[in-house]
Design goal:
By secondary structure, the protein is of the alpha/beta class. It has a single domain (3-127, 164-195, 225-233), classed as Rossmann fold (3-Layer(aba) Sandwich), CATH 3.40.50.150. Helix content is 34%, strand content 21%. It contains eight helices and seven strands; from the N terminus they run αβαββαβαβαααβαβ. The protein has helices spanning 3-11, 37-43, 70-82, 104-112, 131-141, 145-152, 171-181, 208-218; strands at residues 23-27, 46-51, 64-67, 89-95, 115-126, 185-191, 227-233. It has a seven-stranded mixed sheet, sandwiched between helices. Strand 4 (89-95), helix 4 (104-112) and strand 5 form a beta-alpha-beta unit. Helix 4 (104-112) crosses helix 7 (171-181). The radius of gyration is 18 Å and the shape is globular.
Length: 234
């Protein structure tokens, strides 16, 4: 089961609101992804996307696209809820967003403020303890991310807008940030899918993720797996 299949299986367990509707907010939705956007679009009775990047305006899967930060959106949404013009969300997603957050707890507080009690937030992020996560943070600190991506993924560089910060993207960091933000429960699942990292490596190194995956599997150090799949309960 790949990471998006696991995400969709978690989505199947989402609880609808009291009126049997399912309102889902996709934070950092961008232009959408065929890996998960169609699934949540079909699952939700109202599917809303928010992103500070204007690519959100090209997202054809969401019912509403808001080109703004989650902080600004949350403030406006809370005001609309207070006047009875809108309702809280039953679920939210943030797929490959966490690694770009300088303040994960503040981000989570904004998301939680638009969720009803008992609602679910689902996230996917690289594990900061995996070599790829470590290297991404080092390159960002040295301001080399764009230069490296331009060599390895020249087709992607024009769509790469947000720096990797990799703050608290570990099992312990996620749980502490969720607790600070007031989430009632935090479940962090380790997932290792070496093929995710292969496109970022030169040809002579493309076998390394598979070798690494076999080593951590044989030594039972799953904490060093490549990806974190997160389920937080408001």
């Amino acid at each position: 089961m790949n990471q998006y299949e696991r995400l969709r299986s978690l989505g199947a367990a989402l609880n609808s609101g009291a009126d049997d509707s399912l309102r889902i907010l996709d934070v950092g939705a961008g232009p959408g992804s065929p890996n998960y956007s169609p699934y949540f679009a079909e699952l939700a009775t109202r599917y809303v996307g928010v992103d500070p990047d204007e690519d959100i305006l090209e997202n054809n899967w969401v019912d509403e696209a808001h080109h703004m930060s989650i902080e600004d959106y949350a403030e406006a949404h809370r005001a609309a809820v207070a006047t009875g013009d809108d309702e809280l969300y039953d679920a939210a997603t943030a797929i490959y967003v966490w690694e770009h957050l300088p303040d994960p707890a503040g981000f989570l507080r904004s998301v939680r403020s638009v969720l009803r009690p008992g609602a679910t937030l689902l996230c996917i992020t690289p594990n900061g303890l995996h070599p790829f996560g470590v290297m991404s943070k080092v390159l960002a600190k040295l301001d080399l991310t764009d230069r490296v991506l331009r060599r390895l993924r020249p087709d992607e560089i024009d769509h790469y807008h947000f720096p990797v910060v990799a703050t608290r993207n570990t099992m312990w960091g996620v749980r502490s940030a969720a607790e600070e933000a007031g989430f009632a429960d935090a479940e962090v699942m380790l997932h290792d899918e070496p093929g995710v990292f292969v496109p970022y490596l030169p040809d002579r190194l493309k076998r390394l993720p598979y070798v690494y995956s076999r080593v951590i599997g044989a030594t039972n150090v799953d904490v060093l797996s490549g990806t974190l799949i997160i389920r937080l309960t408001a």
